[in-house]
Design brief:
Elements lengths: L28 H6 L5 H19 L3 E3 L2 H10 L10 H12 L11 E3 L8 H23 L1 H7 L1
Antiparallel strand pairs: 1-2
Helix pairs in contact: 2-5, 3-4
Length: about 150
Amino acid sequence: MQAVKTPCIGICSTTSLGDKVCRGCKRYSFEVIAWNGYSADEKSAVLSRIEKLVCQILEHKLRIFSVPNLKLGLEQHSVPFDPTLSPYCWLHNLLRKRHQQISSLQDYGVYVLDEYAGLTLPALCQLIEEELRELCEAHFQRYYLPAASQSA
């Protein structure tokens, strides 16, 4: 069985800022801390949750029309990506790590949906991160805080 890769992209706010949800990989702080002790199934469950949340946000704003172009762009910028996850997760990594160096998303096989076409790329990236952080925090509030209060 292949080892499950960490979703870390080197932008950790749980350890440096004390955030409950990491601004980089979107894991919860307790998942970042315990990651190396998780089984492959536990790691896969975390990645699956993050993948679903990322896709939910990005698919409503962007469309990938060329996965090979996206993959090439990631490789050229040395942006890590997990080939077992959705290309929207790859795109999310690219936007978080390198959006300042992107002049045209079309070069990466991506276009912005009409509703968001008027935004600059930095503004779009900020909107994506805000919505994703809100969604992750809401998920944490709904599924993890009730369980923690019951065990206390």
